[in-house]
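Structure in, sequence out. Go:
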């Protein structure tokens, strides 16, 4: 329990008046980094690619998330000297990324996975993050997030506006 609380403890030392929002980007697996981020979070945003393995992983993530929350809350009360607060992060929603758009909608092969995900009972954002290898591939070299960069091309400007 103490290990899972390390990131939350670090963020609390900064002070709540310093930031309005803290985004924590995690690897696409359920390891100690992801567990620390979940324990430190009030809300979760789940990015997913609309394909077979990614959408299958959403169900596994939700199961693992619920297990982590239950285990953390159960075991946090065992040590009276270091009793931890219960956690209850909520899922804000699932946002689909790397979406190929054709005629203003995801391509046919992606749509069934989006619909299947909507049946999980968790919110799914209507807005998609479309795939654009040129824009997203070049972003790190400029050190500016894609959404904050200036684009003169109509296509790039449109993608940045969507973000």
């Amino acid at each position: 329990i103490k290990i899972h609380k390390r990131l939350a403890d670090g963020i609390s030392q900064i002070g709540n008046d310093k930031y309005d929002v803290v985004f924590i980007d995690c690897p696409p697996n359920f390891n100690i980094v992801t567990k620390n981020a979940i324990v430190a979070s009030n809300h979760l945003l789940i990015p997913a690619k609309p394909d077979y393995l990614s959408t299958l992983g959403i169900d596994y993530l939700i199961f693992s998330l619920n297990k982590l929350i239950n285990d953390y809350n159960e075991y946090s009360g065992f040590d009276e000297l270091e009793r931890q607060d219960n956690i209850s992060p909520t899922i804000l929603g699932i946002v689909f990324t790397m979406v190929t758009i054709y005629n203003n909608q995801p391509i046919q092969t992606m749509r069934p996975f989006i619909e299947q995900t909507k049946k999980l009972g968790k919110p799914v954002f209507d807005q998609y993050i479309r795939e654009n290898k040129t824009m997203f591939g070049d972003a790190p070299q400029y050190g500016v997030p894609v959404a904050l960069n200036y684009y003169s091309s109509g296509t790039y400007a449109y993608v940045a506006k969507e973000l």
